[in-house]
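User: Teach me something about this protein's shape.
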Amino acid sequence: MGSILAQPLRLPCGHEVKNRFFKSAMSEVLGTIDHQVSKELVGLYRQWALGGAGVLITGNVMVDRTALGEPRNVVFDEKTDASKVAMWASAATANNTDCWVQLNHPGKQSPNAINPDPVAPSAIPLAKGLDAFFNQPRELTEQEIKSIVEKFAYAAAFAKDEGFTGVQIHGAHGYLVNQFLSPLHNCREDEWGGSIENRMRFVKEVYRAIRAEVGPDFPIGIKLNSADFQHGGFTEEESIQVIIALDKLGMDCRNFRSVELSFFD
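Assistant: First, the predicted structure itself:
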């Protein structure tokens, strides 16, 4: 088994990683107060890169600085200091290590202490008892949805330009992509809601927009809940439909959240 894990792996896009050890994302919350890359983040990833893993996934990098999941999230947008991002990428890809940026938008799962006006697929609040920490969201307009898709694409292109070797779309943990997929959180009656085909439209458009920006040979992955584990929520059967659809589009790898395993196939 050890010898298999140590072997290189070629992804569908043609990119090869040096082995099959995969460090999943952990939200470090080590950005600066203005959401730039810090020296602590650079140092941490340098050590992880030297540890020997084939792929490192960063924790939450947000695509919109007005929509944060935590106070010290790093943001990739037009205000981001490219030189600091390049230093992070250089440290994280030492030792022939791949480092992929996990791209995220929290949707309504953005604390009211940092975001008083959260957005979501539908104007449905989080579960009762959380209203002290999270405000009721406003339903996104179609133009706003398209704008967020473009922000994901911009952030992915920025990551590639500054030296990262891939990206991962965060589609789990109740964040925006997951909110679109779940019928408990997405009650829209337009082309972005209703059937599973419509509810997966957002993540498919995010993938397509990123692929258009980064080209055919740059790895794109996704972290996806296998189910919501709630009555009437996103089901395992629906998650499989989403995976099949993304696979057909060219997604390189899928990380199921129900068990912390990474599937490269």
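Now, about its shape. The chain has one domain: 2-263. The first strand starts at residue 9 and ends at 10. If you'd like, I can walk through any region in more detail.
User: That's plenty for now, thanks!
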